[in-house]
């Protein structure tokens, strides 16, 4: 039902693309991260909560339609429904059905309920297209309560040393998750402009998020000591100098490999990801009951080979996903 083209995942029967990386006439979007939602298409379909995020990132004048999870829409006889992916707010798996055949495109997903995103729901299908960002056995996440407890202790230690705590977290998804779970540690978070813009869009559309203060050139230096500062991975080191003395922590699944923390010149690394780990990927694939699995971005060849060894027909597919914020390793 889906073919893999130079523009993206194409459903010829319905004449639409899913997360195209080139401009197309009709695009169905799994979520608002920049590697899955790109400018230039004539029409976009997404989950309701993703609409303001697409407008924030692609422009208010885009032609976008939002639908609820499990609400059906038809394109030339192809039934399309969206189902929670648990990746970020508004993220969805795309289910396609025609003549009794069912395909599911997962986009990006995680199985642990983060307290903000609608929790991942496995969808039965004949063919499943899965990501494999962390498709190696070394990637196994600790429960998020344990991770956030460690981050909280790190913040306390920094305060005892008279330092601000700067946490790098992707501006859409990770930043909101971090603030949600650390709000008991501060009256308000100080945040980078990219995070402030996302925060404003979400609050304007009814999401209840912790209080923030947008850091500007006018923010007094007296605001920084002992504070919790949230910045995207793209934040420049020169921008952070104003916070001195501070400690730098990175929230990313890539922090499982300690060398990544050293290469980023960070003081601490926390293996917090909005993607499924190795056991999560395997659990998700099994829960679909799919007879055929296509594996995209990440360790796709390794994961596809492992599935094949387990008796599941699996194949690696090359896509243009997995390069959020210029592919910086701390995004995931």
Automatic annotation (TrEMBL):
Example GO molecular function: RNA endonuclease activity
Taxonomy, superkingdom: Bacteria
Signal peptide (UniProt feature, chain positions) = none
State what protein this is by name.
Putative mRNA 3-end processing factor
What is the organism of origin for this protein? Chitinophaga jiangningensis
What does the record give as the organism's lineage?
Answer: Bacteria, Pseudomonadati, Bacteroidota, Chitinophagia, Chitinophagales
